[in-house]
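Q: I'm teaching a short session on how sequence maps to structure, and I want students to see two examples side by side rather than one. Could you give me a first protein with its sequence written out and its structure tokens following it? Keep the formatting plain so it prints cleanly on a handout.
A: Of course. Example one:
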Amino acid sequence: MARYSIKDLEKISGIKAHTIRMWERRYKLIDPQRTDTNIRYYSDCDLKRLLNISILNHNGIKISHIAGFSDEEIKSRVLDLSIDGRSNSVQIESLMVAMLELDEVKFLNALSASIIKFGFENCVENILFPFLERVGVLWQAGTINPAQEHFMSNLIRQKLYVAIDNEMQSRVVSGPRIIMFLPENELHEIGLLFFNLIARKEGFDVVYLGASVPLSDLLLVDKVRPADAFLTAFIAARNKEELELMMKEYYKLFPDRQFLVTGFQVKELKPVLPETFRVISSVRAFKDAIRLLKFSE
């Protein structure tokens, strides 16, 4: 069973630690266990309960009222809210609970409601990306089960594959060529798939290589179909020096091409970049970067 500190719960749920403690003392909403040294720790059940309580509270239900609800009533009300799809925070928290419970129907209901409400691109940017950041916190805490991550990733990838396939059927290639890949041992490609979709909508000739691409393969592909630019992402844990060395290696091999780099590690570590490298911190930044590439042809 996973064990979370109160700081883990704060990062995952967005609820301040002092608020969680107050809810424990005043309303008995969560009953944490304690170590031999009297330090609180929480289970998966505590985390899921807290996320559900947060959803209800964000939608105007007072904590004092929630305290009187049964577990079944809490779940029923959360399900109604997740299908309704009016709030980003509700959708993100609903996805978290569905992932932890491995509940495919609940996950797809929350995701579909968001797509219908906000549109596909806005859903990915404003719901899925923040959701994936919270999943990253679970990874860092060492408490997420690999099966839960695979379950969630596969459902999201299915949606992206359908959207990309639809775009490929109708698109007209009119822009530069961009090679998209993840470095060796990088396996989390959801963000890269989404940028693949956006680039295709902008008319780019996308060569999508996917996860864990060796340098030798990248050189071979570029020789056959030379790129105007590259896009890559760094999500797996690594230190700043290792990240900078990898970027220097890419720069040495492709000194005259622009490299767009994104991912959690780039955001957190803020590495020193070679002169032709550009950090992509948002969907808007990516669109701006590729439009500049198009205009500079």
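Q: Perfect. Now a second example for contrast.
A: Example two:
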Amino acid sequence: MARIAVLCGTGMNALADSAPSSITISKRELLRVDSPWGEVPAYLLTIKLIESGASHEIAMIQRHHGDGVVTPPHRIEHRANVYAALSFEPDVVVSINSVGSMRADLPPGHVALAKHTLDFTGHVWTFHDSNATHADMTDHFDAEFSDIVAAALGATQESVPRVVVAQMTGPQFETPAEINALMNMGADVVGMTLAAEAKLLAERDCRHIGLSVSSNWAAGQTPGDSTAEIDHYAVEGLASTVHGRLWLALTSCFL
């Protein structure tokens, strides 16, 4: 039995309820994982792949969890979430992040794979505040799993770009000027959470991949309308329409 842990956010609340006909969920258990930074709720799913008959486990953690509220991105305690994900001893951790796209070949509704991150938050995320530990970030997204997922997603969209993900603090969306600056620095998409998770998982030497869900065009990048506004509820709704592709990606991770 293989096991993966999923860190997800915007538009992903109903992901567990949208499983495709190729799998069955035989068990769903709500767990609460204690961490040094607070309690983290997680759903542990036992799934069965219909074609092979194999059973596997998926631990799903909503990174914005809160006591009846949606925790804004700048207030997320990423250490608690990553600690909880690692407590399941997964074969790989999958970060699913909604992003604004700056690439013509990554329109809303498509999924890319993270290649690198650019962190502009100024926030330090580490498990090592008292004793310096320097994790290597040269190639911090797992190549084997990324290739497998890219091949699976390739059956549903024309291309599966490998993208540089810029992380901004939020909770506001970026300005067109900020997007232009990010593009000049090599960013392909922009989000508010991935870099923090990548740094913490690199410190724990855990295999990690990032699925960047294009949920909107970045500010100023909408084809034919550079003044188009970005609406959070529209972003959330669009992100939720890619559940089929995300399940395809997740199930491909069961090597």
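Q: What should students look for in example two?
A: Point them to this: The beta strands are 3-8, 23-35, 38-49, 55-62, 92-101, 111-119, 162-167, 189-191, 208-217. Also worth mentioning: The domain at 3-252 is CATH 3.40.50.1580 (Rossmann fold).
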